[in-house]
Amino acid sequence: MEKTLVIIKPDAVERNLIGQIIDTYERNNLKVIQMNMLKPTLEQVQKHYSEHQGKFFFDRLVEYLTSGDIVVLLLEGKGAIERVRKLNGKTNPEEAEEGTLRKRFGIDHTRNSVHASDSEEKVAYESAIWLAKS
Protein backbone atom coordinates (compact mmCIF):
# COMPACT_ATOMS: atom_id res chain seq x y z
CA MET A 1 0.00 0.00 0.00
CA GLU A 2 1.20 3.48 -0.87
CA LYS A 3 1.61 6.14 1.80
CA THR A 4 1.28 9.90 1.58
CA LEU A 5 1.73 12.80 3.96
CA VAL A 6 -0.91 15.47 4.53
CA ILE A 7 -0.69 18.65 6.55
CA ILE A 8 -3.91 20.20 7.78
CA LYS A 9 -2.84 23.83 7.82
CA PRO A 10 -3.39 26.50 10.50
CA ASP A 11 -6.47 28.05 8.86
CA ALA A 12 -8.30 24.71 8.88
CA VAL A 13 -7.20 23.82 12.42
CA GLU A 14 -8.34 27.24 13.67
CA ARG A 15 -11.76 26.77 12.03
CA ASN A 16 -12.25 23.29 13.57
CA LEU A 17 -12.17 21.46 10.22
CA ILE A 18 -9.83 18.62 11.25
CA GLY A 19 -12.60 16.04 11.58
CA GLN A 20 -14.28 16.95 8.30
CA ILE A 21 -10.97 16.75 6.44
CA ILE A 22 -10.01 13.40 7.94
CA ASP A 23 -13.54 12.11 7.25
CA THR A 24 -13.12 12.96 3.57
CA TYR A 25 -9.95 10.87 3.37
CA GLU A 26 -11.42 7.97 5.34
CA ARG A 27 -14.61 7.90 3.25
CA ASN A 28 -12.31 7.51 0.24
CA ASN A 29 -10.64 4.37 1.61
CA LEU A 30 -7.54 6.06 2.94
CA LYS A 31 -6.41 4.96 6.39
CA VAL A 32 -4.76 7.25 8.95
CA ILE A 33 -1.69 5.32 10.12
CA GLN A 34 0.02 8.16 11.98
CA MET A 35 -1.14 11.56 13.21
CA ASN A 36 0.52 14.40 15.08
CA MET A 37 -0.71 17.86 16.10
CA LEU A 38 2.03 20.42 16.66
CA LYS A 39 3.10 24.05 16.46
CA PRO A 40 5.65 24.09 13.63
CA THR A 41 9.07 25.55 14.25
CA LEU A 42 10.67 28.02 11.88
CA GLU A 43 13.37 25.44 11.11
CA GLN A 44 10.81 22.74 10.17
CA VAL A 45 8.87 25.07 7.88
CA GLN A 46 11.96 26.45 6.15
CA LYS A 47 13.17 22.90 5.52
CA HIS A 48 9.74 21.82 4.27
CA TYR A 49 9.56 24.70 1.78
CA SER A 50 13.30 24.78 0.97
CA GLU A 51 12.68 24.26 -2.77
CA HIS A 52 10.83 27.60 -2.78
CA GLN A 53 13.52 29.58 -0.97
CA GLY A 54 14.21 32.81 -2.83
CA LYS A 55 10.80 32.89 -4.51
CA PHE A 56 8.50 35.86 -3.84
CA PHE A 57 6.02 33.79 -1.81
CA PHE A 58 8.52 31.92 0.42
CA ASP A 59 8.38 34.31 3.39
CA ARG A 60 4.57 34.42 3.24
CA LEU A 61 4.40 30.59 3.32
CA VAL A 62 6.82 30.36 6.25
CA GLU A 63 4.98 33.04 8.23
CA TYR A 64 1.64 31.39 7.57
CA LEU A 65 2.62 27.82 8.46
CA THR A 66 4.26 28.95 11.71
CA SER A 67 1.19 31.03 12.68
CA GLY A 68 -0.66 28.23 14.47
CA ASP A 69 -1.07 24.54 15.09
CA ILE A 70 -1.06 22.01 12.26
CA VAL A 71 -2.08 18.37 12.05
CA VAL A 72 0.24 16.02 10.17
CA LEU A 73 -1.28 12.82 8.81
CA LEU A 74 0.36 9.80 7.27
CA LEU A 75 -2.28 8.14 5.12
CA GLU A 76 -2.17 4.75 3.47
CA GLY A 77 -4.14 3.33 0.58
CA LYS A 78 -3.99 2.19 -3.00
CA GLY A 79 -2.65 5.07 -5.12
CA ALA A 80 -2.70 7.29 -2.03
CA ILE A 81 -0.50 10.10 -3.38
CA GLU A 82 -2.54 10.79 -6.49
CA ARG A 83 -5.90 10.16 -4.80
CA VAL A 84 -5.18 12.61 -1.97
CA ARG A 85 -4.00 15.29 -4.38
CA LYS A 86 -7.23 14.86 -6.34
CA LEU A 87 -9.33 15.08 -3.14
CA ASN A 88 -7.43 18.22 -2.11
CA GLY A 89 -7.89 20.01 -5.45
CA LYS A 90 -5.82 22.74 -7.06
CA THR A 91 -3.64 24.95 -4.85
CA ASN A 92 -5.79 28.01 -5.54
CA PRO A 93 -9.27 27.35 -4.07
CA GLU A 94 -10.86 29.55 -6.75
CA GLU A 95 -9.53 27.16 -9.43
CA ALA A 96 -10.20 23.93 -7.51
CA GLU A 97 -12.94 21.56 -8.64
CA GLU A 98 -16.25 21.56 -6.79
CA GLY A 99 -16.28 19.19 -3.84
CA THR A 100 -12.50 19.19 -3.29
CA LEU A 101 -11.17 20.11 0.14
CA ARG A 102 -9.59 23.33 -1.07
CA LYS A 103 -12.78 24.42 -2.85
CA ARG A 104 -14.85 23.63 0.25
CA PHE A 105 -12.51 25.03 2.91
CA GLY A 106 -9.70 27.07 1.31
CA ILE A 107 -9.62 30.81 1.87
CA ASP A 108 -6.99 31.85 -0.67
CA HIS A 109 -3.87 30.61 -2.49
CA THR A 110 -1.82 30.54 0.75
CA ARG A 111 -4.51 29.66 3.30
CA ASN A 112 -5.79 26.68 1.34
CA SER A 113 -6.34 24.33 4.31
CA VAL A 114 -4.29 21.28 3.24
CA HIS A 115 -0.93 20.20 1.85
CA ALA A 116 -0.12 16.80 0.35
CA SER A 117 3.14 15.27 -0.79
CA ASP A 118 3.44 14.95 -4.57
CA SER A 119 5.75 11.93 -4.86
CA GLU A 120 7.14 8.99 -2.89
CA GLU A 121 10.41 10.93 -2.48
CA LYS A 122 8.53 13.90 -1.01
CA VAL A 123 6.60 11.59 1.34
CA ALA A 124 9.92 10.31 2.74
CA TYR A 125 11.46 13.81 2.90
CA GLU A 126 8.44 15.45 4.53
CA SER A 127 7.82 12.54 6.93
CA ALA A 128 11.39 12.96 8.23
CA ILE A 129 10.60 16.63 8.99
CA TRP A 130 7.13 16.24 10.51
CA LEU A 131 6.93 12.73 11.93
CA ALA A 132 10.48 12.19 13.21
CA LYS A 133 10.63 10.52 16.60
CA SER A 134 12.32 12.67 19.20
UniProtKB/TrEMBL annotation:
Residues 1-134 form the Nucleoside diphosphate kinase-like domain. Signal peptide: none annotated. GO terms for molecular function: kinase activity. Its EC number is 2.7.4.6. Keywords: ATP-binding, Kinase, Nucleotide metabolism, Nucleotide-binding, Transferase. CDD domains: NDPk_I (cd04413). It holds the Pfam family NDK. It is an enzyme of class 2 (transferase). It catalyses: a 2'-deoxyribonucleoside 5'-diphosphate + ATP = a 2'-deoxyribonucleoside 5'-triphosphate + ADP. Its cofactor is Mg(2+). The keyword Electron transport does not apply. The active site is at residue 115. ATP binds at residues 9, 57, 85, 91, 102, 112. It comes from the Bacteria. SMART domains: NDK. Belongs to the NDK family. This is Nucleoside diphosphate kinase. It comes from Alkalibacterium indicireducens.
